[in-house]
Design a protein that fits this description.
Blueprint lengths: L2 H15 L3 H19 L9 H24 L3 H15 L8 H17 L8 H12 L5 H15 L1
Length: 156
């Protein structure tokens, strides 16, 4: 069992003992998502810590989107719970890049792509290929794509 998955299980046990309903429910759902990912496909496998982080990031993103939807629907109490669950899951994820750090990585990648002959909005794919490995797990894909699009539009 990976160290991150075992940490989640230990935290779940502690949350149940402390009768922390929000924390135990969130961790239970996340561990279920991890197990589901392990048994999906043609054969069962154990996820690495990186794979577990991807599942946690996906679950946190679901919570943020659900909170937004509930808030728009006027269900503030449910939106607050989803936000709290998302914040709890964020504690297990690596610290996200700041806008300045991300902008620096993107501008460097745009310069690399330009040097390789890719320019304007059509260079999006080339720039994303350079940026994605550098920011994997440290910035949400939509945020990265929006910044790349903006910086390419500014150049071409």
């Amino acid at each position: 069992m990976t160290s991150l998955k075992s940490r989640l299980k230990e935290d779940l046990t502690a949350a149940i003992r402390a009768r922390d309903e929000l924390r135990s429910a969130t961790l239970r759902l996340t561990l279920t998502a991890i197990t589901k990912e392990e048994v999906s496909g043609t054969s069962a496998r154990e996820l690495s810590d990186d794979d577990v982080l991807k599942v946690i990031a996906k679950e946190a993103k679901k919570r943020r989107e659900a909170a937004e939807a509930f808030a728009q629907g006027g269900r503030d109490e449910q939106a607050e719970r989803e936000k709290a669950e998302g914040a709890l899951l964020d504690t297990y994820l690596p610290k996200q890049l700041t806008d300045e750090e991300l902008a620096g990585i993107v501008s460097q990648a745009v310069a690399e792509a330009k040097a390789a002959g890719a320019e304007g909005p059509r260079a999006m794919g080339a720039v994303m290929k350079i940026v994605n490995p550098k920011v994997a797990g440290l910035a949400e894909g939509g945020r990265v794509a929006a910044l790349v699009k903006r910086s390419l539009a500014g150049q071409g």
